[in-house]
């Protein structure tokens, strides 16, 4: 049954006007085809009705003839799909709305293939040899819907004990034993530098110290034991700060398959294209060494591959996002108070950056943890704590639909933007050691079904209200016949007029906004 009591006793709304019935098994897409049972029919309706209603709000205009929304079904998407989200389902006792009945329709509607799922050592019934009810309910529901879990494994309860290594290994073994070797992927803790358990037990502070030495040793031993037993198990590093991860890899050789990266810039008054990096004495927390996000990510991955001698090493951005409500104060010429509009615009830009640079990108987070503006962490979700989809949810779903869940950047694509007469001056501001300068960006992606998708946006800080930059673009690759321009904030689309340019280039005019608009070619 749907939870009808909201936080702090507030009444909870019905999801999209639909009361969702049925237990956890009702969400299993693979069970929907079971013939001749009334339960299967009820299960199909329970999931398909809210999913269809959400998807019906994705697009209007000619793009509806070019995008098949049925391909959003996670079960139809390969494991190589790039888009994921964080579930926080391990906290369902604290946030009672985070149940499969309530939230799985949103993940399915948006075509999310991967969900980062908290897996604490204490979430498993070791004496009974079975997962706890909460963990089992979510993982079972995800797998039946075709969604893969990225288990964020926390063995902090065993730090400083003989199980500080074997506890992690036991968790991998237990999950594979319960759900099979192809169950998903395993992340070795999450942000240990932000963990009081790691720092209290071993000493050190955010930037490093004894805890990092211990993590380095434990991670290497865990990987060695897991890979000996399960060679195909996919392991993701848990350290999200580049300098710390490089220090770890210089002192050890863990058998990880992917580096971890978290991308947040709003605390520092930086647009998403600017990358917080460590090591500058001008900042206590983060600095920006240069603005080209793609170069930072490429350098991080290149170093990791060289240190480990693994050319197939990947990089997973296991957290990106922005709260939609915050009491944090920012300079008015850098960032405004947070809003759902700003959140959605930032998500759109970060998703494009993820498609350009990372193997996987996980949105932090699927659902709000509350609605207290004094706690930034409460409103990172794209679904509110009373189950209302925010604008950011629809941006996520639309970009997922346009790309097919994965897209490859085209390094040969060139775009030159010329600002037209009367255009507003560009945004320029010095933030610490960084000169934040507005650019008009255009990037070409090749979607999962082989179509060209060009993203165009301004790198000025996202605003609640933004004056578009009128510009003419010349690109070196054709946009095809009757390209369609799609606005991910509204879902509206129209045909884009193009014309021949000099030297075989193709030209078009566009009102550039502070979030990516997409130009989709014909199939």
UniProtKB/TrEMBL annotation:
GO terms for molecular function: hydrolase activity, hydrolyzing O-glycosyl compounds. InterPro entries: GH, Glycosyl_Hydrolase_39, TAT_signal. PANTHER family: ALPHA-L-IDURONIDASE, BETA-XYLOSIDASE-LIKE PROTEIN-RELATED. This is Glycoside hydrolase family 5 domain-containing protein. It comes from Nonomuraea diastatica. The lineage of its organism: Bacteria, Bacillati, Actinomycetota, Actinomycetes, Streptosporangiales.
